[in-house]
Amino acid sequence: MLTSKQRAFLKSEAHSLKPIIQIGKNGLNDPIKTSIRKALDARELIKVTLLQNTDENLADVAAVLEEEIGLETVLKIGRILILYKESSRKENRKLSIKVKAV
């Protein structure tokens, strides 16, 4: 579980990120979950956008991803989710080291 300080730190880190995954009319399907997993493993912090043509609800998407992937939702704002998960690969754990120090 993230503390409020860690959450604030991750929000500031995510501010300059561009959304790399978009959920569209096909909804939150398995290929999208796989790409979210891979992106989190590589980067630890990502932005996901829900496009206008999706029927998905932001809170539902966040809940499903938290349960299935075990990630942390840093922020839900508008149609954007900021997601964080410590990388399973040691060489990619640059951000999580900073998060633990906060």
TrEMBL record:
Pfam families: CRS1_YhbY (PF01985). The keyword Metal-binding does not apply. GO terms for molecular function: RNA binding. Residues 1-96 form the CRM domain. Keywords: RNA-binding. InterPro entries: RNA-binding_CRM, RNA-binding_domain, RNA-binding_YhbY, YhbY-like_sf. Signal peptide: none annotated. NCBIfam families: RNA_bind_YhbY (TIGR00253). This is RNA-binding protein, YhbY family. The lineage of its organism: Bacteria, Bacillati, Bacillota, Bacilli, Lactobacillales.
